[in-house]
Amino acid sequence: MTTSSKPDIHLGAFPLDVGHHIAAWRHPDVPADGGSSLDFYRRLAQTAERGKLDMIFFGDQMAAQYPDDETVGRTSRVTRLEPTALLSALAAATTRLGLVGTVSTSYFEPFHVARKFATLDRLSEGRSGWNVVTSFNDREAQNFNQGEVRTHAERYERAHEFVDVVQALWDSWEDDAFLRDKASGLFFDPAKLHVLDHRGKYFSARGPLNIPRSPQGQPVIVQAGSSEDGRGFAAERAEVVFTAQPSLAAARGFYADVKARAERAGRDPGHVKIMPGAMTFIGASEAEAREKYEQLQSLIDPEVGWIVLRRHLGIDVSGLDPDAPFPDLPLTPDFPSRQKLLIEMALSEKLTVRQFYERVVGARGHLLAIGTAAQVADQFEAWVDGGGADGFNLMLPWLPAALDDVVDLLVPELRRRGRFRHEYQGSTLRSHLGLPVPSNRHVQSSAQPVAQA
Amino acid sequence: MTTSSKPDIHLGAFPLDVGHHIAAWRHPDVPADGGSSLDFYRRLAQTAERGKLDMIFFGDQMAAQYPDDETVGRTSRVTRLEPTALLSALAAATTRLGLVGTVSTSYFEPFHVARKFATLDRLSEGRSGWNVVTSFNDREAQNFNQGEVRTHAERYERAHEFVDVVQALWDSWEDDAFLRDKASGLFFDPAKLHVLDHRGKYFSARGPLNIPRSPQGQPVIVQAGSSEDGRGFAAERAEVVFTAQPSLAAARGFYADVKARAERAGRDPGHVKIMPGAMTFIGASEAEAREKYEQLQSLIDPEVGWIVLRRHLGIDVSGLDPDAPFPDLPLTPDFPSRQKLLIEMALSEKLTVRQFYERVVGARGHLLAIGTAAQVADQFEAWVDGGGADGFNLMLPWLPAALDDVVDLLVPELRRRGRFRHEYQGSTLRSHLGLPVPSNRHVQSSAQPVAQA
C-alpha cells in the first residue's frame, strides 16, 4: 500500500481560553487576558487557516465556573465569550477555515439556534458547524429560570426533537427559490418556500426560517457524547464526533461501535468522522517536547489540581497515598461515561494516584502526544490506520505557541507523509471533511455529491 | 452664536436588507442578493467608518415576513441575518464604528442577551449597543412555542425586569477584578466577583455573567417605542432613542416630552440622545436628488405598495379615490402610536390618498430629506437647533449608493459647518455619543466621566 492511498488526517484546532492545560495562563509566553480578546482569537484562526486545518472549534459553558472553596480565584476558566458571536467575528477574519461552535439544546428554542448557525453559515459562505450538546450543569440551569437540570433520557429526547426542528428550518427555502427578477418584480418563487408548522412534544415552531441555505446546504452537525444515549445520537445524526479516548485500544472500540451503529441506522459510516481529542506537545527533539510538558505541569497549583480531579472524577481521591496504585473502584452502571473512561484508564494502565492526577489534570483523559513532529505523526497515523480515528480535535495546551507548533512542525511532517492537504480543495467545511451536501428535503434528487464548492 | 458652539450632529447608518425603500432591490445599481452577504455589509460598515459616523444599526425580525396574498414573492424583506452575529462579524472588519442591534426581550432569557452584547462589547472593545424591543408580531410568537403575543402592558413590565437583570449581570465583575498574577496563581479577586441571585416575577438568574466589562463599562441602551409605555421606558432607561417623526413640529413635541420625563426620572436629559429616522436622497443638484427619489418610487410594485400601506396603517384605503383628500379617521385611544402618527401626518399636511401612499410606502412616516447636501444639512440643522433631535438614524433607501452619498456629500458639508467630527475622539460608542461610562454598581464612586477611551 502506498502512502498516497491512505486517507488524509482531519485536524481541528480547539482553543479553550488561553489553552487547554489548566495552568496555561501562568505560562510566561501566554497573554493571560487573551481569552476575551478578538485579536488573540483572530491570530489563532489565521494560524489555523495558514496550516489548512479543517476547522477551529469553540466549546461553551453558560455559567462562570469557579469553585466554591479555598481555590476560588485560582482559575482562568471563569470567562467565556459566546461562541457563535466569536465565530461570526472570525468568519470576517478568514476565508476557508471551518467554524464550529457549541450551543446547548437545553436553554434555547430551535428557531434561535437554526438562525444563529444559518447566519454564521451565510457570513462564512458555507463554513459553519454546530456542536449539539445537552446541558447537565446546575450552575447553567440556575441562569435560565430552572432550578435543576432534566434527566439524561429527557435531555436526549428533547435534543432529538430540537435537531429535527433546526434541520427542517434550514430547508425552509429551496436553493433556487430566490429569483430576484428586477424586471418582473418577483423576488422569490412562493412554491419554493416551505412552512414547517411543527407541533411536537417539546417545541412548536411555524417557520419558515428567514435565512437562505448556504453553499454547503446545511451546517455540519457535530456531537460529543460518549454515553449510550450519546452514541445513539451520534450514529443517527452526527457528521463529526468529538470524543475523549485515552488509548488506541479504547478509541478502536468506540470507533467500531459508532460506525456500526451508523450503518445500522442506514447511514454511510464514511459520513461520520470520528475525531478524538488530542493534547500535543511538539518539540524539535523529544526532550524539548517533554520539557514543554513539564514546564506546564510544574505550573499547576496543587490545590487547583485536586479540585479539577474531583470535578472530572466525581469522587475525591486527594487523601490517598500519591504513590499507591489507583484504587479499584466499583463501576456501577449509572456511572457517567466520562468518569468511567477515566477510571478504566487508571486501572488498565496501572497508574499510581500521582500518575493519574498528572494525566487527568493535564490532558483530562484525552490522547496525550508528546514528542517530535515525527513521533506525534507516527502516533496519529497509528490511530487513523489502526481504526481508532478519522482525525483529531487538537486540545491546544497553551496558546498561541502550541498551535504554532502544530502548523509549523506537525502539518509539514504529515504533508511529507502524504497525509495532510497542501491546499484547501474547496471553500466549505463539508468540502474539507469530505461530507456530502444534503439536498433540500423538499426537492426530489438522487444525487448527493461530495461538497466541492 | 458661532457655529462652533453648536453641538455636533450624531449620525447612525441604518441599513435594512439592500435598502429601506421597499423597491430598493429592483434598483439597477443594487446587488439584490446583498442582504445575506458579509461582503455587502462589510463594505457598508467600512464606508460608515470612513465617514466617522457614530454607529451602524441593524433591526431584527424573528420571522420571515411575506404577505399571504396575491403579492407573495414580491418582497425582498423575507430574509434577515441575525443581527448580533452580523455585528460580531463587523466588529472584526472595523475599529471605531459603534455597533448597535435589536434583540427582543420576548423570546430570550436575560442571561442570553447579557452574554450576546457583552461578547460583542469585548470583541469590539467597547462599541456595542442594544436596541431593546418587545415583540408584538404573531408570526414571531409562532416560531417560539407561543400562539399569541402578550399584552402591551405585560410586555413592558417584562421588558423592565429583563433589562434590570441584563444590566446587573453586566456588572458581575468589577473592572479591576482580574489580577492574572502568574507568580501567585491568583487569576481574579473573589471579592470583586458579584453573584446576582435574581428571583423576580418573570425571570430567575443566578449569575455571575462569564464575561468581563468592556472599556465602555456597559453596552449602550437604545430604544424605539413611541407609545406611552415606550416613552416611559425611554425616559427611565434609554441612552439613545430612535423615533419616527414626520415633521419638526412633531419631533419637537416628542423631544421635549422624553427629555422632561428623563429629568423627572432623575436623569441628566443630555444623556438621552434622540435620533429620529431620516430617509435621505442627496444629489449634486436638487433636481438630481429628486430624480433619485422618483426613480425608486417608480419601481414600487403597486400591489406591494397597497399591502405595505395596509400593514403600516392597520386599515385598507386602497379602494379610495387616489386624488381625494386623505379621510379624517377617528383616532380612538387604543390606536397604536405609530399608526396614529401616520394619520396625523396625513391630516396635518392635507395629503391626498396618493400623496399619503407615496410618502408612507417610500419613507414610512419618517423625515424624508431630498435635496443637495446643503439642503439636507439645512434641514438637519433646523431639527437639531430647533429642539427636535440630537442626530439622525439614517434609513438609507438603496444601498450602497445612499450611504456613499451621505459620506461623500453630506458629511463634508456638515463638517464645513462645524457640525460633524473630522476624526473619532475616542474608540467607544459611548465616546462618540458623549455618554458617561456607568460605574459598576458594586463600586463606590462619585465620578461618572464622559467616555474618552
Name the descriptors.
homodimer; 453 residues; alpha/beta; eight-stranded parallel beta barrel; two-stranded antiparallel ribbon; 13 strands
Under CATH, the topology of chain A can be stated as TIM Barrel
Tally of individual helices of chain A: 14
The helicity of chain A comes to 25-40%
Calculate Rg of chain A over CA atoms: 22 Å
Mean pLDDT of chain A, to the nearest integer, reads: 91
Architecture of chain A, CATH level 2? Alpha-Beta Barrel
* Biggest sheet features of chain A: 8 strands, parallel, barrel
- Please give the oligomerization state of what you see: homodimer
How many angstroms does the end-to-end distance of chain A come to? 30 Å
Classified in CATH, the superfamily of chain A is Luciferase-like domain
Largest interface: A-B, 77 and 77 residues
Question: What is the total domain count of chain A?
Answer: 1
Output the strand order for the largest sheet of chain A.
1-2-3-4-9-10-11-13
Description of the structure:
- Chains A, B: FMN binds at residues 60, 102, 152, 156, 226-227.
- Chains A, B: It comes from Verticiella sediminum.
- Chains A, B: Residues 26-388 form the Luciferase-like domain.
- Chains A, B: This is LLM class flavin-dependent oxidoreductase.
- Two copies of one chain form a homodimer.
- By secondary structure, chain A is of the alpha/beta class.
- Chain A has a single domain, classed as TIM Barrel (Alpha-Beta Barrel).
- In chain A, 37% of the residues lie in helices and 14% in strands.
- Chain A has helices at 38-50, 83-91, 110-123, 138-141, 152-170, 228-237, 248-264, 286-298, 302-313, 337-348, 353-363, 373-385, 401-416, 429-433; strands at residues 10-14, 55-58, 98-104, 128-133, 178-181, 186-188, 198-199, 204-205, 220-223, 240-243, 273-283, 367-372, 391-395.
- An eight-stranded parallel barrel of chain A has the order 1-2-3-4-9-10-11-13, surrounded by seven helices. Chain A has a two-stranded antiparallel sheet with strand order 5-6. The first copy, chain A, has a two-stranded antiparallel sheet with strand order 7-8.
- In chain A, helix 2 (83-91) links the parallel strand 2 and strand 3 (98-104).
- Chain A is globular.
- The model of chain A has no long low-confidence stretch (mean pLDDT 91).
- At the A-B interface, helix 2, helix 3, strand 5, strand 6 and strand 8 of A face helix 2, helix 3, strand 5, strand 6 and strand 8 of B.
